[in-house]
Design brief:
Layout: E1 5-18, E2 21-34, E3 38-42, H1 49-56, E4 65-73, E5 79-81, H2 90-95, E6 100-103, H3 117-128, H4 133-146, H5 152-155, H6 165-177, E7 183-187, H7 195-212, E8 215-220, H8 223-229, E9 232-237, E10 240-246, H9 247-252, H10 257-264, E11 316-319, E12 322-324, H11 330-336
Length: 349
């Protein structure tokens, strides 16, 4: 369906010209988010997840070179490409924080330590909604109550350092949702929390999503969170999407060798304590002056020499629910005009 499309990211690229060369932080990313959907971006640190959402929000570094499109379907019916807007202009400021909100991993970096929680919520509300200061304060108190903070009329006058980590995270969610955005972008929002508080915050986000009818773009390296939170998921590696599917297909029938390696590295219940945990060999390289071929080639256990190190596999539909960028699938080979080398069977990753 296209009538419920909210965000359409198409071939998005964010390149940072540095003295050492061009850093391709985001290198041709494409995905869609529909209304009421939760979309996940997953991958190791350094894969380009955060830079992707920073580009969408137009808060990437000023010297970044951006191409591609980010088409946003606004609540008023307008359709706008966010990459064409002035990041400091009135239209982008209206969208950012009002129609698309964002929460971060560490709320202490989002809240000013010099102002109360309430003053910061009030400021956010009044930027995007035509209300008085008194009305904005009531909205702030109501939102703090809805996110589960006890004594919201007391908390609204407290400073960030007076709240625990979990309480600050709830306050940040309250600030993000105070203008009832269509899309909430959550960048590793529970990584710094213990597992009990993490579970509470995840439940809170699901409940608020149902209440507000908003979409969520969830960025994380935690596949356990992905399994609990999202409908569709894009796996990123070295600035690119290497697998794109619904969450059930990802866990029950992963296609890309990188995705399979990530899933194998999850600790299993019942695992014997003497057995070593599996891990993805090597690390994500810095995407500067990236060589030709598949970016995962140096770490891949099933790479095809002479092909994977020479040609970059595009993201192609390999079955009804799955897109993957791997030459183990004939659809990907056909897309670049290559043939399968002898002795390599389909889907043996």
């Amino acid at each position: 369906m296209t009538n419920d499309l909210l965000l359409d990211v198409e071939n998005l690229k964010t390149q940072l010209p540095l003295d050492e060369g061009v850093l391709k932080a985001v290198d041709g990313v494409s995905f869609q988010i529909h209304r009421g959907e939760t979309m996940g971006l997953v991958g190791e640190s350094g894969c380009g997840k955060s830079m992707t959402v920073q580009t969408i929000m137009r808060i990437a570094p000023n010297f970044a070179e951006i191409s591609g499109s980010v088409t946003f379907h606004r609540p008023n019916g307008d359709v706008v490409d966010l990459t064409t807007l002035n990041p400091y202009g009135s239209e982008m400021r209206s969208i950012r924080g009002g129609e698309v909100a964002m929460i971060f991993q560490e709320p202490m970096t989002s809240f000013s330590p010099l102002h109360t929680i309430g003053n910061q919520l009030i400021e956010a509300v009044r930027i995007h909604r035509p209300v008085s200061k008194r009305q904005a304060r009531e909205i702030a108190v109501d939102m703090l109550d809805r996110v589960g903070l006890s004594n919201p009329r007391q908390r609204v006058d407290e400073y960030p350092h007076q709240l625990s980590g979990g309480m600050r995270q709830r306050a940040m969610i309250a600030m993000a949702l105070s203008c009832e955005p269509s899309l909430l972008i959550a960048d590793e929002p529970t990584t710094a929390l213990d597992v009990t508080v993490q579970a509470q915050v995840l439940k809170l986000m699901r409940d608020l999503q149902a209440e507000f009818g908003m979409s969520i773009l969830y960025i994380t390296h935690d596949l356990g969170v992905i399994a609990r939170m999202v409908d569709n998921v894009a796996v990123m590696y070295l600035g690119r999407v290497v697998e794109y599917t619904d969450v059930d297909s990802l866990f029950h029938n992963p296609k890309h060798p990188y995705t399979k390696a990530l899933l194998k590295s999850i600790p299993k219940i019942g695992r014997k304590s003497r057995n070593r945990l599996e891990s993805v060999q090597g690390s994500v390289p810095v995407p500067i002056n990236r060589p030709s071929g598949c970016g995962f080639f140096p770490r891949c256990q099933v790479a095809i020499k002479g092909l994977c190190d020479r040609v970059d596999p595009p993201l192609v539909q390999v079955d009804e629910r799955h897109n993957a960028a791997c030459f183990l699938y004939p659809e990907v080979l056909e897309a670049v005009g290559e043939t399968h080398p002898e002795g390599v069977s389909h889907g043996t990753a």
